[in-house]
Amino acid sequence: MHLGLSVTYALALVTGALAVPAEKLETRQQPFTSTPITDHTEPWAFAFLPDNRILVNERRGNMRLVDPTTKAKGTITGVPSVAYGGQGGLHDVALHPDYAENSMVYISYAETGSGGAGGAVARAKLTLDTNGGGALSELEVIWRHSQRAQGGLQFACRLLFGPDGALWISSGEINQMTPAQSMTGNLGKMIKLYDNGTAFAGNPFASEGEVQAQIWSLGHRNPLGIDWDADGRLWEVEMGPMGGDELNLIERGANYGWPLVSQGRHYDGRTIPAHSTRPEFNPPKAFWVPVISPAGLIIYKGSLFSDWTGNAIITGLSSQSIVRATITGDTAREAQRFSMGKRMRGIREDSEGAIWVIEDGPSGRLLKLTPN
Ligand SMILES: *[C@@H]1O[C@H](CO)[C@@H](O)[C@H](O)[C@H]1NC(C)=O
Ligand SMILES: [Ca+2]
Hints:
Blueprint: H1 2-18, H2 22-26, E1 32-40, E2 43-48, E3 54-58, E4 62-67, E5 72-77, E6 90-95, H3 99-102, E7 104-113, E8 116-128, E9 134-144, E10 156-161, E11 167-171, E12 189-193, E13 215-218, E14 222-228, E15 234-239, E16 245-250, E17 286-288, E18 294-299, E19 312-316, E20 321-328, E21 331-339, E22 344-349, E23 355-359, E24 364-371
Parallel strand pairs: 5-9
Antiparallel strand pairs: 1-24, 2-3, 3-4, 4-5, 6-7, 7-8, 8-9, 10-11, 11-12, 12-13, 14-15, 15-16, 16-17, 18-19, 19-20, 20-21, 22-23, 23-24
The structure holds 2-acetamido-2-deoxy-beta-D-glucopyranose and calcium ion (CA).
Calcium ion (CA) binds at residues 246, 256-258, 284.
């Protein structure tokens, strides 16, 4: 007993002597247990079905159905052909808010056509069979990038349904830069639509034409993560160029500055003016130099990770990490970073508050994270 007290006291002294804030000290060990569920070929995204099975999109164009209990991995047929190459392929998957009644799922993907590749969003009816698989049918493309490009870069196209039932698409600028500022195209924008692809009536530029009517915000580069906080505010992560990854609070009609301002520089070394030089553009609430390469975002709603409620949890590719950022009012800052040893692609929270992530690459694992 005496020994126990001494050790505790000694640890307290060491902690004090190092003068490391408690939160930073905590980053040296992961506060969660990571349980591998299934392996996938270049997975990009996943979504939970009401029965707790999981749809997993693999970038080459395969949709899998995972049973986390048995770890069985079935196939969903009927995925359209995708433009696999560069960063492109099959991207996100989201369930319609009334999925339990209408079986509608939404997918985003890169498609080819004249001029190169662009992003597309389609909806389809999902029918599950009794053999652990299923099929998409009645597929209908409801949205497309207004321009295509060579190179296969920065499609993004994360899908998210809002509290009002609207469909949000985080549209990348397919590495074309200035179109992110153009109001005659939908590249580099947050897009808000009805579930059938029609522009949402309350959008800020609704009266200005067909493409303008889709736009909620502009000046985005490669926005790969979007989620709601408990107050109904939309947060977004986007990859900057060399340096300058951003966590943004998305406001109606606002311009986020790309490519006119950035906290990073161009890959050829040319500088870009910082956000502070152009106050008319909304600056990020947090940014990263060097980059973390944010590929997914949740605003944690659960209480299983009891200290994380309301935090932004971000998966990072080049940083091979999960980043936790605290949000206080309309400010945000990185609080912790967990090294995962693999490029981390997608992230979702389940109904019990466990956090699921998926690795990038040829044998990317779907992992379930639960507190230690
Ligand atoms: C899409 O849905 C909206 C809202 O329900 C509706 O007003 C609109 O007419 C629909 N558009 C089409 C083409 O069906
Ligand atoms: Ca910006």
